Hints:
The complex is a heterodimer.
Chain A: E1 4-7, E2 10-14, E3 19-25, E4 33-38, E5 45-50, E6 56-59, E7 62-67, E8 72-77, E9 86-93, E10 97-99, E11 103-108
Parallel strand pairs in A: 2-11
Antiparallel strand pairs in A: 1-3, 3-8, 4-5, 4-9, 6-7, 7-8, 9-10, 9-11
Chain B: E1 5-7, E2 10-13, E3 19-24, E4 31-38, E5 42-50, E6 53-57, E7 64-68, E8 74-78, E9 87-94, E10 104-105, E11 109-113
Parallel strand pairs in B: 2-11
Antiparallel strand pairs in B: 1-3, 3-8, 4-5, 4-9, 5-6, 7-8, 9-10, 9-11
Amino acid sequence: QQQVKQSPQSLIVQKGGISIINCAYENTAFDYFPWYQQFPGKGPALLIAIRPDVSEKKEGRFTISFNKSAKQFSLHIMDSQPGDSATYFCAARSNQFYFGTGTSLTVIP
Amino acid sequence: KAGVTQTPRYLIKTRGQQVTLSCSPISGHRSVSWYQQTPGQGLQFLFEYFSETQRNKGNFPGRFSGRQFSNSRSEMNVSTLELGDSALYLCASSLGAGSNQPQHFGDGTRLSIL
């Protein structure tokens, strides 16, 4: 059973556009929600993370929106660039980390 | 500051063999977790170690085992290798074992079973 459901599986965005990736969960014991970016041949790199007592967190072009009542959180990438083309994973932690299945983002110049 | 270092980067084994993978965490990090990443199953948690003690274990068979040393370095062992064990094995370290401790990943060991 997938503890964290991530969508879409793949996403194509024009340069300068907004990329939005969504995740949903059921386990209310989750209390930490990070997003990771992974390039081919590399390990996942921590992008940004949020705790459930905060509804939004912004770091540069990356924003997490968190809806505790809906048990959903999303990553917004503003002004998307070709260098952002990568696979993005959401995750949630209770006693261990559970990862979404990943979103392959392609930003077209 | 050096990141998480995993060795070797690539490994080819045959069915039935056993393998040991190594992970050196970021200096000062005392928690190490291991994950298996495959195209079909994504990132799956194997186990977490903190201060040489296994704190959590994922849903993997007993062929998968690990340990952590006093310097926080960790090793993972897989015995009686099966074709389905082919995957990218990732190690992640964090300062402590708390729920809001960010994890930092290494670049993984790519294990191929022939």
